[in-house]
Amino acid sequence: MNNPEVVMIGLGYIGLPTAALIAEGGTQVHGVDINQNVVDTINRGEIHIVEPSLDKSVSNAVSKGFLKAATTPVEANTYLIVVPTPFKDKNEPDISFVQAATTAILPLLKEDDLYIIESTSPIGTTEKMMTYIYEERPDLDGKLHIAYCPERVLPGNVMYELVHNDRVIGGIDEGSTEKAVAFYAKYVKGELHKTNARTAEMCKLVENSSRDVQIAFANELSLICDKADINVWELINLANKHPRVNILQPGCGVGGHCIAVDPYFIVADYPMESKIIGTAREVNNYKSFWCAEKVQNTKLQFELQHGKKPKIALMGLAFKPDIDDLRESPAKYIVQRVLQNSNNEEYYIVEPNIKEHNVFKLTNYESAFKKADIVVFLVAHKEFKTLPKTSDKVVLDFCGNFK
Length: 403
Known about the structure:
Layout: E1 6-9, H1 15-24, E2 29-32, H2 36-43, H3 54-63, E3 67-70, E4 78-81, E5 87-88, E6 92-93, H4 96-105, E7 114-117, H5 125-136, E8 145-148, H6 158-164, E9 167-171, H7 174-185, E10 192-196, H8 197-228, H9 232-239, H10 262-269, H11 275-306, E11 311-315, H12 330-340, E12 346-350, H13 365-371, E13 374-377, E14 394-397
Parallel strand pairs: 1-2, 1-4, 2-3, 4-7, 7-8, 9-10, 11-12, 11-13, 13-14
Antiparallel strand pairs: 5-6, 8-9
Domain UDP-glucose/GDP-mannose dehydrogenase C-terminal: 313-403
Pfam family, one: UDPG_MGDP_dh_C
GO molecular function, one term: UDP-N-acetyl-D-mannosamine dehydrogenase activity
């Protein structure tokens, strides 16, 4: 592939779908990932993640020669940084991957190029990278277009939402914003909202922190209702009949690469000001711990009543229904915690969206349900909704599967 138009650094859950979308539009895309296996898989026209219709898009783009993957970048006109931003100790964001990706393209940058960060980042990251680039390449000072445009897609519906969702685009100056807007306008049908880089960075963090706070309210209600002997699902359903009330559904915590993570970007930088945001994180983390404790207590109760150890089905590992993504998954945390406290009970671990796991031995969901004395619903996968309600099992339903 000669001189691609776009270099996409990071070919994960966001980078690969975005690269495929751009390439399907007839633009030459050079995708970069540090994992050779990922690169080889994509170059065969295959995918390494589960996402509806992504396989067709990648296969199509690769076969037509518009998408190629490699472990190193090449010269282009537009560079998109879509790498992870993990955490160091005490939930402090680590932007070293963003910096490493930027370092990799430093020698390739030329006047009038467009550099966009999509990775979730602390406020000020885009300006930091601008300073870094211009320090290393003073010949380009003021001659690049630098912008931030966060993704806001839902796993399981990424290919649709990449096209149809509105985007917030913030440049380091007006020219950068305009150039980035012109780039996204070629592929996105949603509205493109212009702002500055700092506001765009904050916008991403605020969207997910808002969801986290709302989920924390629902999870806190579930803890109160458990003590008060009230069905939380019925309660929320009734409360939501009020025209101005819209309480979300509780679960066994909050997971994924966004809602469970992004609030920490704010809390780390503004600890004294972000009291509600910080407390919401604590509530949602505690809910997972509480669910694990509940399984432990139910198990001991069963032994006392029946004089034997129960067989326990742990239903779901993903961070939300009907996907294969286990990142920051509260269900996975609960399973790990329950197994740490195991004492020769028989466990059946279920996750219908993955074939195998390198730590857990997986069991078919129907078989696990049938054999188990205690069934623990951790994720409301569509398969689980087909299971019969039965009175001969102890059911712990943390996600409203049987609500």
